């Protein structure tokens, strides 16, 4: 008997005519994959198990910035900086694009000592800052959903948590809900020139203006809103501008930012003055080592400020 003919071989992918291939959606290089199963390399899942803090402080930091984290722990990031208020500090970081492997052991040792570092397996680059913030929102929503408030801050700020808590958050009152405030930008739009660090092509964000948003150096949101931002981010095209993207998330939720008292969030550097800084929440462009030298004077009682 003659053998039955074998079935026709299926063509390999590279043999299929281009017209027959399904189109692959192209991803703009400034747009990191999201949602995507980024893994926690360093995590602190039990921090809120005993009791939910009043405030979770999330500080964006680079993997190699050991000295910066040390200075922040001793100054505005000190968990005991506001008497009578429970504060939890966590540093957010990704993987160094070049020295990820050698830095891993250093970060693991620092993490074992201080138990305050979160790290996921995305590359730690400027255009991935949105991933860093979303990692913090993910952590709050999964491991600390009872936190009353969340502050996201960059490393290069002077942050006055005591004034933030006493003036804006007021622990004696019930926690606000669906609340976010900071330095509010309104009617601003993406920069379309590649010459800018903040370049956003139309392929990433087609609209000419952003919804209102809070400037990235430091902003505060209610704990319930952190979880909602993380959830809605799973449904939106990611934007490489972290602060603008959080504003887009709020817009998608049908919410808006709350204007802060004028001048308490400063996007530009101001000369240090204890009395002036005691009535501010944030001043941008102060390096951690610089704050370390100013902090004893700021905390000192030998200067009397006018009422």
From TrEMBL:
Domain Beta-1,3-galactosyltransferase 2 N-terminal: 35-56
One Pfam family this sequence matches: Galactosyl_T
UniProt enzyme class: transferase
Compartment annotation: Golgi apparatus membrane
PANTHER family, A to Z: BETA-1,3-N-ACETYLGLUCOSAMINYLTRANSFERASE, HEXOSYLTRANSFERASE
Gene Ontology annotations of biological process type: lipid metabolic process; protein O-linked glycosylation
EC identifiers of the protein: 2.4.1.-
GO CC list: Golgi membrane
Family to which this protein belongs: Belongs to the glycosyltransferase 31 family.
Ranges annotated as biased composition (Pro residues): 1-10, 20-32
Functional pathway: Protein modification; protein glycosylation
Ranges where the record places region Disordered: 1-32
Keyword list, A-Z: Glycoprotein, Glycosyltransferase, Golgi apparatus, Lipid metabolism, Membrane, Signal-anchor, Transferase, Transmembrane, Transmembrane helix
Protein name (Swiss-Prot/TrEMBL): Hexosyltransferase
Gene3D superfamilies: 3.90.550.50
Keyword Glycoprotein among record annotations: yes
Gene Ontology terms, MF aspect: N-acetyl-beta-D-glucosaminide beta-(1,3)-galactosyltransferase activity
Source organism superkingdom: Eukaryota
């Amino acid at each position: 008997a003659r053998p039955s003919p074998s079935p026709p071989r299926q063509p390999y992918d590279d043999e299929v005519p281009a017209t027959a291939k399904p189109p692959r959606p192209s991803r703009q290089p400034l747009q990191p994959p999201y949602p995507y199963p980024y893994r926690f390399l360093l995590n602190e899942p039990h921090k809120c198990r005993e009791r939910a803090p009043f405030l979770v402080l999330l500080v964006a930091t680079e993997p190699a910035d050991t000295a910066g984290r040390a200075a922040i722990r001793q100054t505005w990031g000190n968990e005991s900086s506001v008497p009578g208020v429970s504060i939890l500090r966590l540093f957010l970081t990704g993987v160094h694009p070049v020295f990820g492997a050698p830095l891993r052991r250093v970060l693991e040792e620092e993490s074992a000592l201080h138990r305050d570092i979160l790290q996921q397996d995305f590359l730690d680059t400027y255009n991935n800052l949105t991933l860093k913030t979303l990692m913090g929102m993910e952590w709050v929503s999964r491991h600390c959903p009872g936190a009353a408030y969340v502050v996201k801050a960059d490393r290069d700020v002077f942050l006055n948590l005591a004034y933030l808590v006493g003036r804006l958050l007021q622990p004696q009152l019930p926690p606000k809900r669906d609340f976010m405030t900071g330095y509010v930008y309104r009617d601003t739009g993406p920069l379309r020139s590649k010459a800018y660090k903040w370049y956003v092509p139309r392929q990433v964000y087609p609209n000419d203006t952003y919804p209102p948003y809070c400037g990235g150096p430091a902003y505060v949101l209610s704990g319930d809103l952190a979880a909602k931002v993380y959830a809605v981010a799973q449904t939106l095209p990611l934007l490489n501008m972290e602060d603008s993207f959080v504003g887009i998330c709020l817009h998608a939720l049908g919410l808006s930012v709350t204007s802060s008292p004028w001048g308490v969030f400063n996007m530009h550097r101001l000369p240090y003055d204890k009395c002036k800084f005691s009535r501010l929440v944030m001043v941008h462009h102060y390096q951690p080592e610089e704050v370390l030298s100013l902090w004893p004077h700021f905390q000192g009682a030998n200067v009397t400020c006018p009422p």
